[in-house]
Design a protein that fits this description.
The protein is of the alpha+beta class. The protein has one domain (about 5-305): 2,3-Dihydroxybiphenyl 1,2-Dioxygenase, domain 1 (Roll). About 15% of the residues lie in helices and about 35% in strands. The chain has helices at about 15-25, 90-100, 165-175, 230-240, 300-305; strands spanning about 5-15, 30-40, 40-50, 60-65, 75-85, 105, 110, 115-120, 125-130, 155-165, 180-185, 190, 200-205, 220-225, 250, 255-260, 270-275. Helix 3 packs across helix 4. The radius of gyration is 18 Å and the shape is globular. The termini are far apart.
């Protein structure tokens, strides 16, 4: 099996779509590179935020299910998404977030990296992590971002998972996906792919006394891993099935192809191909400005547009 290079995207559950857009594009300055719908629930947006070109590994996406209750903390849930920022930029970010009234927690040092934890408007825990650029992840700055280029978010750094029992998940990550342990600190185990740089690791902790967590606003829905192409995806799919997962068939999401499965602790994972990418149906200059639907939903456009709230660029 060819190695997995790292994170492809992370998808989370948000509240009202306009508030989500105002925060991620307006406050954090990420580019809305695709405005579409949840293909399994077309009455809900699927909003994709990334670098200027929507490179794999820079993409944080949201299902704005405002009708859901807040998530329930517990095991079997991803509890935090870490975003990579350039070294020396946390001072800029702490000042900017404070001006917007965003809940910021005390700065931390995790595995030698400076981290600024915060909470988004709908309860999702984020961590801005000072990190060197990843050699395997491309980044294109967005010239229209409100954030100066030298402070812009570079992509996904990592995610944190809480498990009832670490052993089954760590075994699966190692044998099914090719991870290895690279450190333990303050109860967290860091498991990595490749060189273990930005976008190539997870942090996991066991909480055997906790109840099982539940999806809701402010929780991660799934974590996706980069597949080079269709053949790579099929090979990894076979490998995870041989190590106890129950993967779905390959699902065509138009901008990439997907396979879903749960790791032993219950967190939903996805295998997602790098291509064809977000430029397949929109010009680079106008990414994210119009509602884009995959071809099989175009016939329902009028009904879909009528059901969705109007969004205004921040």
């Amino acid at each position: 099996m060819q190695p997995i290079s790292g994170l492809h995207h992370v998808t989370a559950i948000a509240g009202p779509a306009q508030e989500n857009l105002d925060f991620y594009a307006g406050v954090l300055g990420m580019r809305l590179v695709k405005k579409s719908v949840n293909q399994d629930d077309p009455g809900t947006y699927h909003l994709f935020y990334a670098d200027a070109e929507g490179h794999p590994g820079t993409d944080l996406t949201f299902f704005p299910w405002a009708q859901l209750a807040p998530h329930q903390e517990g095991h079997g849930l991803s509890t935090e998404v870490s975003l990579a920022v350039p070294p020396g930029s946390l001072g800029f970010w702490s000042g900017r977030l404070a001006r917007y009234g965003i809940k910021i927690n005390s700065p931390e040092v995790r595995f030698g990296q400076h981290v600024l934890p915060l909470v988004d408007p709908h309860g999702l825990r984020l961590a801005l992590t000072e990190s060197q650029s990843s050699p395997g992840r491309s980044f294109t700055p967005w010239e229209r971002s409100p954030i100066p280029v030298e402070h812009q978010i570079r992509g996904l750094e990592s995610a944190r998972l809480v498990e009832h029992d670490l052993a089954p998940t760590l075994s699966f990550l190692r044998d099914g996906l090719g991870f290895r342990e690279i450190g333990v600190e303050n109860g967290w185990t860091r498991y990595a792919l490749g060189e273990g740089t930005s976008g190539q690791y997870l942090e996991l902790r066991a909480e055997p006394g906790a109840r099982r967590g539940a999806w809701g606003t402010g929780s991660v829905h799934h974590i996706a891993w980069r597949m080079r192409d269709d053949a790579h995806e099929l090979a990894v799919r076979q490998n995870v099935a041989e190590h106890g997962a129950e993967p779905t068939p390959v699902i065509d999401r138009f901008w990439f192809k997907s396979v879903y499965f749960r790791e032993p602790g219950g967190v939903l994972f996805e295998l997602a191909t790098d291509g064809p990418g977000f430029g397949v149906d929109e010009g680079q200059a106008t990414l994210g400005e119009s509602l884009v639907l995959p071809p099989w939903l175009e016939g329902e456009r009028s009904a879909i547009e009528a059901a969705l709230p109007k969004l205004t660029a921040p």
